[in-house]
Amino acid sequence: MKAAILGATGYAGTEIFKILLNHPQVSELFIVSSTKSGEQLSDVFRMLQKNSLNEKTKSTAGKIISLEEALDLKPAVIFSALPHKSSAEACCRFVEKSLVIDLSADFRFKNKAYFETAYGFPHLELSKNAVYGLAEWASESIKACNLIANPGCYTTASLLPLLPLVKEKVIGNSIVINALSGISGAGKKPEEKYLFSECVENLTAYAPGMSHRHSYEILEQLENEGFKGKLLFNPHLVPVKRGIFAAITAELTKKQTSEDILSIYQKYYSNKPCITINKNAIPQTKDVWGSNCCAIGWHIEAAQIIVFSVIDNLIKGAAGQAVQNMNICLGFPETLGLNLNSLL
Amino acid sequence: MKAAILGATGYAGTEIFKILLNHPQVSELFIVSSTKSGEQLSDVFRMLQKNSLNEKTKSTAGKIISLEEALDLKPAVIFSALPHKSSAEACCRFVEKSLVIDLSADFRFKNKAYFETAYGFPHLELSKNAVYGLAEWASESIKACNLIANPGCYTTASLLPLLPLVKEKVIGNSIVINALSGISGAGKKPEEKYLFSECVENLTAYAPGMSHRHSYEILEQLENEGFKGKLLFNPHLVPVKRGIFAAITAELTKKQTSEDILSIYQKYYSNKPCITINKNAIPQTKDVWGSNCCAIGWHIEAAQIIVFSVIDNLIKGAAGQAVQNMNICLGFPETLGLNLNSLL
Amino acid sequence: MKAAILGATGYAGTEIFKILLNHPQVSELFIVSSTKSGEQLSDVFRMLQKNSLNEKTKSTAGKIISLEEALDLKPAVIFSALPHKSSAEACCRFVEKSLVIDLSADFRFKNKAYFETAYGFPHLELSKNAVYGLAEWASESIKACNLIANPGCYTTASLLPLLPLVKEKVIGNSIVINALSGISGAGKKPEEKYLFSECVENLTAYAPGMSHRHSYEILEQLENEGFKGKLLFNPHLVPVKRGIFAAITAELTKKQTSEDILSIYQKYYSNKPCITINKNAIPQTKDVWGSNCCAIGWHIEAAQIIVFSVIDNLIKGAAGQAVQNMNICLGFPETLGLNLNSLL
Amino acid sequence: MKAAILGATGYAGTEIFKILLNHPQVSELFIVSSTKSGEQLSDVFRMLQKNSLNEKTKSTAGKIISLEEALDLKPAVIFSALPHKSSAEACCRFVEKSLVIDLSADFRFKNKAYFETAYGFPHLELSKNAVYGLAEWASESIKACNLIANPGCYTTASLLPLLPLVKEKVIGNSIVINALSGISGAGKKPEEKYLFSECVENLTAYAPGMSHRHSYEILEQLENEGFKGKLLFNPHLVPVKRGIFAAITAELTKKQTSEDILSIYQKYYSNKPCITINKNAIPQTKDVWGSNCCAIGWHIEAAQIIVFSVIDNLIKGAAGQAVQNMNICLGFPETLGLNLNSLL
User: Fold this and answer.
1) Interface ipTM above 0.90
2) CB pairs under 8 A between B and C
3) Which of A62, C291, D78, D316 could form a disulfide with D311 if both were Cys (CB 3.0 to 4.6 A apart)?
4) pLDDT at position C40 over 80
């Protein structure tokens, strides 16, 4: 099977590349870039061992190719890790002939108002055809689609622990999400505030309340499952490269024991290979660092619950979930080619 | 003036030592330890430049002394950075003759039930005489006392932004504090979970809800100012050495603009040299790293407020506030010998 | 095939465990510990996803077993990541029936004097039968042996770039190795100096000259290839979890261009899948973080050469090379089950 | 006394600013910038506590001023932390009327060839009048000059341990310097390679041999003291913000004990307040983090010596030494306003 990646030099794109190099169903791999076409992959991706590169990139002579060349090669699947807006433009050209998995936000929303508030440009028509690819919640629709909008990293870390509680109506109408993210979430573009010397030994928050774009993405999905309340989303920036840790607080609508909550999570996730339910422990990002797993834990204090979740923002929060979605859509085993153990 | 430090080899104790070496009112400095008495200070404190050591430790020939020797030397002030329980035992022996500033939790509580729930041993009689040394809130009582219970680090970071809002009754009866702490908060005792290789690239939380001892300390102080609601306190562990970042969410009891909140903070803190009010910016721990300042910011989202605060857990959260309390009690300028600029 | 691991809770041992969980030739995996036998693997190895654990540890019901139980189960291969001395004792009991791969230093030396100087206890008789498992240099003897002494991490990082130059007699009789190591090289035992708060923002060196045990191990191997000069080995401790960076300086015995050096490395390593030859770039540990590769670069300055090499100390410097050695000995493809791309 | 700073927004410039805010002899402080003139200091330097800012910047209403305004204000001393070339241009305009301390490389060289090889533009005439401000070695000429070329960070860390050994002719004609630097050495300009996510968990070297500009600066100063041999300088980049650790190896010209070396260092440095001689310990950067000290240690192995030194690259390697030079030149106590204890 042929696969192509747009935007492979960013953090998420490089992770897709690394996963697909080891994926047994991908035999040919095209790296696509308008600005770098013609360059040798081994010059650009020094962390990738030459032998593994050569094997799957023979047909393009180990080179980066242009969008036009990629269209001609008719890949079965293309992944786009381009920035929003330019991602949609590129995806549109492939969507008739290939399975398109878009890691940008361009096709994530059905709610036009939310999209336009969050992103500041008009909602895209094609979004109607896209499936929101939260893998554990959309597997049936993923199987039948050719355009997958891969969820955001904060969104994945928030929705996976929240959706079962919302569906079972055990939490009230006010949710507060405090989430910590590693710096790779900000991408590879050089900005002063993401320099090592600016980030090390520093803790801060940014875009609080509903100021972060992911807050609307979270809200739309919660509302889809019946949530009618309000949300506060407080993202923090902390000095790690990878990892999201979310601590979510809400009122319980009725008395719940820790065992009750366990039952709810088991109902939704006991057969989900990428979800780890931590019965008696608070998860740590090092439990899932480099893996496609999300680990979930919780604590009940009187009538309130605190839910904890951890993911690797680049894997389950981006590249890994994208490949998981490909696996589901194309009928491969869900975790094929994905790592489920921590790499730290 | 003579000053003594018990427990100077821990992180907070060493910071007291460093501050007092530069404090113009301290002429003689005694480092007290039952296990290390007789050892050379310059062997134990390699990061302290020998000249500065020699000047103020001449009378003890640059050596660590025992508790008995310290009692004989009648210091005007003693600081205890010993663990709780053993701190109270040592402090009791000095309290008649010296100003005692205790950094442990032993004398922080008036509420017996809270203390005993949090610490698991009986409330101490002497606590009645102790002043809770949150410097910006207790300066009058500090001036008149001889036993100061120095607040906890999380407590300081939480109370300084919360007390004005509680006093002005602008926030409702449910407060959620999410706080991130550097690893030095766990002290210098070797434990596997605090090894560099266990902490780097890792994010986690611990002791959530009301499981952390500081939650009761926060609650007692909030209740003293009229708070009658419930509290959730979620401490996190993140890979920095120093710093606490707190994000506190609550309902507003009435409509408030950002300017209204600014007025409240100005009312309480405009003449407080260690409080920085950030009108339009979320604070970062690098703004106060190594300084005795607390910086406060806020965000209003509909009927809810998120308040942010940052301190250096070892300085404003421990050693710096202890010296600030000494300054207030002994009638020196409040910030004498204290650093107010970030050192990072 | 059955495989067993002694000392799996340490950093190197856990990496062996993770590699073997994904190794297609290992069907049953035994985790052996005298102190933890009977405990559930999923409690001890939280970063390992339960499904992957269950598959290969069914026969022991997902539990840690004792040494005696392991002997009864007759594994085809055992890996020991125990501390030296206790490792030899355990290995002796398996060596008749299993391939034994020892990650300790117990069997690494033929030179008795060097061993006894470095380790302070008598040289072990069984060392005579052991093959020094520097995989790229000993593949023929590895195929024919049943006891492999897996090299040290610093040693691997030093010998791989040095041996070709020594064999080709292009470098003189004085070698200076400056090597930087991540903190995981010190193991998981809690010691104050390896606490996060002690290591972060700190750079230092230790055991310089010939004070570090690995210096004798390096020297013995260099002498085996004809080196007759002197060595200085300066290990440094720097705040990363994983990685060794070595910068090695020596005089050239005759004029050499950069192309000449390239030819030498190509002669020895062009068919070695775990060696990356960097023609025009200084390697970085992030090129090999988490992989079993060693990347080599060099710079010529007048009559002197500086050679650079990088490895992941836990993979090519320990667990990965151990599995590579198993693969070679048992006739599997050399890199089977091993990761060759950076994971960072 | 009036002081001005050019280039105060960079790392070194900000440190000068912080030191001078606390310097008892500086009563007025001007921050000069062509691009930011008119901006409020409290907006640009958020880590600086407002009260301390106000006190010394009253005359400019707490604002950044232009170069022309600064010339009119006739500061007694100006510090330039501008990039080379633009620094020389600015310094020339002040040098008649003010003491000029230039932190760039523009005036560091007397050897034209070395300067032009290293910097690629013509040697500046004015360099003839400049004193090379290695404070411990040039105090007499500093007292008599009005233009000080402040040494580079690597240079300071290398020369302070080397010069006594070169002057006493105890080391041979081949010196190898391996030095590790924190990322702040690369400045604040955003570049991909200095992003947090690119630097964390990474170790590398760059500009080896004689490729780094500081290698010529070191060589010129060594030659001034009689060194006639060759130098290899290998700088490394490691994930800390601050700190340089240098490990320097050389042959001994005659047998030396560790005590002999101690005597040499005592001869040159026993009365130098910013030099710490570590008799039996390898220094660590955390011993001098944030301080103006250089700590020196050594190890003798047969006929070779390894010398270790540590500095804070932004303090003794830049801003601190600049203020030390001002103190010496203007007749203040050498360490006035400087911190000599570690701040970490």
Assistant:
1) yes
2) 64
3) D316
4) yes
